[in-house]
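Sequence, please.
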């Protein structure tokens, strides 16, 4: 799979430009234009998979962080200058 989304976006843009050029020269129903269109569709699909995977990964990290933050904010408070003594609410 691709290392970076930007690499995949660059490849999508290049494929799109080639497809448009081919469509202008040979027509939109030419076999070469259709093949390039299908390759472009595959690249876009790969990009969507990468984007979805990264979004789900961010959601999981946010959930873990949120749970940790709630635990620590409710767990304890320190008294003035006596940091070894923990006071629970």
């Amino acid at each position: 799979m691709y290392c970076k989304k930007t690499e995949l976006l660059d490849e999508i843009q290049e494929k799109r430009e080639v497809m448009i050029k081919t469509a202008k020269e040979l027509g939109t129903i030419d076999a070469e234009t259709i093949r390039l269109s299908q390759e472009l569709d595959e690249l876009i699909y790969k990009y969507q998979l990468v984007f979805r995977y990264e979004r789900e990964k961010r959601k999981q990290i946010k959930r873990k962080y949120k749970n940790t933050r709630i635990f620590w904010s409710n767990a304890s408070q320190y008294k003035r200058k006596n940091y070894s003594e923990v006071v629970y609410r």
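The beta strands are 77-79, 82-87.
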